[in-house]
Q: What sequence folds into this?
């Protein structure tokens, strides 16, 4: 009986693949249920659209991998080590101020495909305006930890965070 059930399930799955009706499973890390004491919000794939693209306030998002460093090694390189404290400092400075919030997302535990958000390098910072339009924060601004807080803060203050794309009336 169990073999027949597995065969039927495999046949349904194969048919769905062939006719294009199979849904892609998306890996999503566990949602942060209690972020008390956390300065930096945690974004997971299952809540990506709600927390990033439809939030109504600009968002600076750190994309990183908890598994492998950007170099592919298990040890942490300087950019990986320096970006987390930078983001924590920026969160203390900007979160709750109404113009921009700061969050982080682990791409190792969350599926982020290029159609959702292209990630050419890790770690990286992306800035979303109020409409969810994304801009890469230039790597040069945070490559040198000595001036990173000042340079990224200056970039955030100059970027049109509250710019909303003009909407065309529906017909």
A:
């Amino acid at each position: 009986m169990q073999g027949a059930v597995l065969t039927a399930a495999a046949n349904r799955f194969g048919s769905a693949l062939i006719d294009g009706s199979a849904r892609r499973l998306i890996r999503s890390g566990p949602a942060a249920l209690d972020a008390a004491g956390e300065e930096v919000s945690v974004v997971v794939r299952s809540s990506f659209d709600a927390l990033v693209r439809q939030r109504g306030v600009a968002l600076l998002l750190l994309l990183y991998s908890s598994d492998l460093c950007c170099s592919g090694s298990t040890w942490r390189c300087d950019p990986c080590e320096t970006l987390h404290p930078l983001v924590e400092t920026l969160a203390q400075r900007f979160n709750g101020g109404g113009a921009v919030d700061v969050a982080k997302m682990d791409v190792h535990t969350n599926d982020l495909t290029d159609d959702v958000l292209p990630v050419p390098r890790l770690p990286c910072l992306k800035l979303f305006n109020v409409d969810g339009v994304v801009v890469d924060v230039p790597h040069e601004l945070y490559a040198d930890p000595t001036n990173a807080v000042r340079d990224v803060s200056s970039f955030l203050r100059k970027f049109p965070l509250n710019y909303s794309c003009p909407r065309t009336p529906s017909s």
Summary: The radius of gyration is 20 Å.
